[in-house]
Each structure stands twice: as structure tokens, then as C-alpha cells.
Design brief:
Blueprint (H helix, E strand, L loop, with lengths): L2 H5 L38 E5 L14 H5 L9 H8 L3 E6 L33 H8 L5 E6 L5 H7 L2 E4 L19 E6 L2 H12 L10 E5 H5 L3 H18 L2 E4 L6 H27 L5 H10 L4 H21 L4 E6 L12 H15 L1 H5 L3 E9 L2 E8 L5 H14 L3
Parallel strand pairs: 1-2, 1-3, 6-7, 6-8
Antiparallel strand pairs: 3-5, 4-5, 4-9, 8-10, 9-10
Length: 411
């Protein structure tokens, strides 16, 4: 069966057998599916979860067969999964993720890399790669993932999806694989704006107070950090945000330079990732692919004094950002530095755009603020995401704004 024929069929049904999918989005060895409640706002919708969340009766694989082999069955089901099931959605399976979630390309040498339904020659983005592919390909209505350095936001951008990284600790991620305790959050993606709104209401709950967004802050240092053709391609999306919300002004997110922010992020993330994985790595010595292997080896060299110093610097950045962004403003920047790279691109080019993207993706995890990816435009015939960031705990209003922007945009 051709991919296009398969994707035009109805979405996957709940099954005790691993679902067939032409996009290689779902895990096979530890498949699990569960029917949702008979009633609820999500009734009739199907979803998938990244293979880092616990579901009793299964074992999460964390993107590596050795992890799956060395861990027993999950003792309970993650709170987020239960909430979605209790509100009527059907879980149809778990999705492939990058190896130990320590990449943003969407590659997995162990299980195969999910295919981008917009152009299978291109990467899907990760580490929530399968969640992005399955949702964009119409195999499920929405999917959850985890996000530290763009693991939900990048797949959303590369696959033309609405993608949410909530305020830190806004969504309970109990039952998620250990990773980076102080910055990792549960995120989610959807293609349809109405579905995105409904899922947002279920997972985020109500905001504590009503905020009317009426200012647009254009992050000039972020746009300066991407290639000129990327900034130009995003201009119609930026214009639509300004038309919808009101006046815009150019601002610098990091007067001291985003490279300083990246340094802080890498140390905090690296130290905490090694805290999560170090013991397992030393005990089982799993075979790792080149990228994750090199990055994990570096995390082992980070000293605790360096980590504590970076955390202190991060606290100052959070205070600085709080003073910088008003409650009624949204910050606008590119989600990633490019469209999904071609799998044939040189390693040098991929590393260049990865470095550019890092400066964009580190802002919300460092500041603990919500960020939404909005799919409004394309470049080279494939999606290119625009990002909106707002103050902490304005998540639901930000999600609704993003969905409304998609509904009202005319290509």
C-alpha cells in the first residue's frame, strides 16, 4: 500500500496488536492500547504517547532496546495518560523517540526514524519524533511528548502542527522517564485547531487570571540568529500576529547574548541528564549512536560547582525575563532555525542549523514560560513554525490564541 493511500484511510483503532503505520511512528516491542471513558470532551478522539510515559501493563523503552531490556513493567500509569483516558480519548499506541531523548533530529538507529509526512526525504524532528509524525500523518488526532530543548516544539515546526510546551510544572508529568528535572515538561501536538483547544483545556486547566494579549514583541536577536531567507519566509505569519493582536516593537531577549544563555542551559541540562542516566550507563554500558554517545560523555565531565553556578545564573535570567516581558505581550520568534533538514544534508549543515535552533529553543526552558508553535507558513514546500512565548501560567490563553491564529490565517 502506498503511503498516501494509507494516510487517506481512517485513523488507527484501539488494538491489542501493534498498529501498522507507513510512517514508522509507533513502537512495536512494547505496544499498548487502551480505550477511553465512554463520555467526555475528548470522546471520539485518538491519541498516542511518546515512549517515555508509564502505562501499567507495559514498559516504556526510552528510545533504546537496552533500556527496555533492563527495566521491568511500569508499576502505574502516568497521570497525564489517565487524565486523557478519563476524558474520553482512546490511546492507540506509543511512539518512537530519539535515543534516550538526547537529540532533536528525530533519528533512532535502534528502531528506525519516523518519516515526515510532508516530505519523507526530510527529518521529522525530535525527540518526540513519532508523536509528530503520527499526528501530522493523521494516524491520531493528537499526541503527547516531553520537551526540554525543543523535543515537542521542533517536531511541531517540522510537521506543521500546533505544539505546546507549558509553563514548568503546569502539567503533571508524574510517570515520565527521568531526564532533566528542572526544565523538562510534558507537551503535546495537534493538527486541528479545535482539537488543540479541547486537549489544552483538559491538560492545562483554567488559567488563574484572564490576560488579554495586546502587544507583540518581535525578538530581533532571535531573528538575527537565523538565515535571512527563513526570517523572510516567516514574515506573513508575523504580520498576521500583529494584525490580530495590535502594535509590535522590536526587542532583544538577551542583551548579553543568547550564546550566554546556551552555555547556562547546557550545563544545567547536562548535569541533570547525567544524574538521571549515569548509574544506568555505568552499569549496563549500552551501545549508543554517535550523537547521544558524545553528548552523554560530555555530561559526565560537568562538576557540581559548575552546575550550581549555572543554576544561580539561570535564576537571574528568570528574574530578568519576568521584568522584560509584560503580562499582556507575546514574544514572537522562529521555532527552529530552518524547515526540516534533508536526510542527505551534510553533517556540517545539520550541526549549523542545530546550533542556531538551540539559541531559540533554550529561552522557554530557562525562563519556565509557556511556548506554542504555530503552523502558518511554508518554505521549500514544507512547514516552518512560528513561536509565541508569554508569561508563566497564561498557557490556556496562549493555546487558544495560537489555534485562533491558524483558523483566521489565509494563505
Amino acid at each position: 500500500m502506498k503511503i498516501n493511500q494509507f494516510l487517506n484511510n481512517s485513523k488507527l483503532k484501539v488494538s491489542q496488536e501493534p498498529p501498522y503505520d507507513a510512517l514508522q511512528a509507533f513502537v512495536r516491542d512494547n505496544h499498548i492500547a487502551l480505550e477511553g471513558a465512554k463520555e467526555g470532551p475528548l470522546k471520539g478522539l485518538s491519541f498516542a504517547i511518546k515512549d517515555v510515559f508509564m502505562v501499567k501493563g507495559s514498559t516504556f523503552g526510552n528510545g533504546h532496546p537496552e533500556w527496555l531490556k533492563t527495566h521491568g513493567p511500569d508499576p502505574y500509569t502516568a497521570v497525564s495518560v489517565l487524565k486523557l483516558l478519563d476524558n474520553g480519548a482512546d490511546l492507540v499506541g506509543k511512539t518512537v523517540c530519539d535515543e534516550l531523548c538526547f537529540s532533536i533530529s528525530g533519528e533512532n538507529w535502534n528502531y528506525g526514524s519516523p518519516l515526515n509526512p510532508h516530505d519523507i526525504r526530510r527529518y521529522t524532528g525530535g525527540s518526540s519524533s513519532g508523536s509528530g509524525a503520527a499526528t501530522a500523518g493523521g494516524l491520531v488526532d493528537f499526541a503527547t511528548g516531553s520537551d526540554c530543548l525543543g523535543s515537542v516544539r521542533v517536531p511541531a515546526s517540522y510537521n506543521g502542527l500546533l505544539g505546546m510546551r507549558p509553563t514548568y510544572k503546569r502539567v503533571d508529568n508524574d510517570g515520565e522517564a527521568p531526564y532533566c528535572e528542572s526544565m523538562d515538561v510534558l507537551g503535546y501536538v495537534a493538527k486541528d485547531p479545535a482539537v488543540f483547544k479541547t486537549v489544552s483545556k483538559v491538560l492545562l486547566g483554567e488559567d488563574k487570571k484572564t490576560t488579554r494579549f495586546k502587544q507583540v514583541y518581535i525578538a530581533k536577536d532571535c531573528f538575527a540568529g537565523v538565515d535571512e531567507d527563513v526570517a523572510k519566509a516567516l514574515q506573513p505569519a508575523i504580520d498576521h500576529v500583529i494584525t490580530t493582536l495590535g502594535p509590535a516593537k522590536e526587542v532583544s531577549v538577551a542583551p548579553e547574548g543568547l550564546d550566554k544563555w546556551i552555555d547556562i542551559f547546557k550545563i544545567v541540562q547536562g548535569y541533570e541528564v547525567y544524574e538521571s542516566y549515569g548509574g544506568w550507563l555505568d552499569k549496563y554500558k549500552p551501545r549508543l549512536s554517535r550523537g547521544p554517545k558524545e553528548r552523554l560523555a560530555w555530561t559526565k565531565t560537568i562538576t557540581r560547582p559548575a552546575y550550581l553556578e549555572a543554576k544561580e545564573k539561570r535564576n537571574k535570567l528568570m528574574d530578568q525575563f519576568l521584568a522584560f516581558l509584560p503580562e499582556d505581550a507575546v514574544l514572537v520568534l522562529p521555532t527552529a532555525a530552518s524547515v526540516a533538514p534533508l536526510r542527505t544534508d551534510s553533517l556540517e549543515e545539520i550541526n549549523r542549523t542545530r546550533a542556531q535552533s538551540t539559541s531559540l529553543l533554550c529561552i522557554s526552558p530557562l525562563t519556565g514560560t509557556p511556548q506554542v508553535t504555530v503552523p502558518l507558513v511554508k518554505q521549500h514546500g514544507v512547514p516552518l513554525g512560528l513561536t509565541l512565548i508569554s508569561r508563566e501560567d497564561t498557557d490556556l490563553q496562549l493555546a487558544h490564541l495560537a489555534a485562533d491564529l491558524v483558523d483566521s490565517f489565509e494563505n
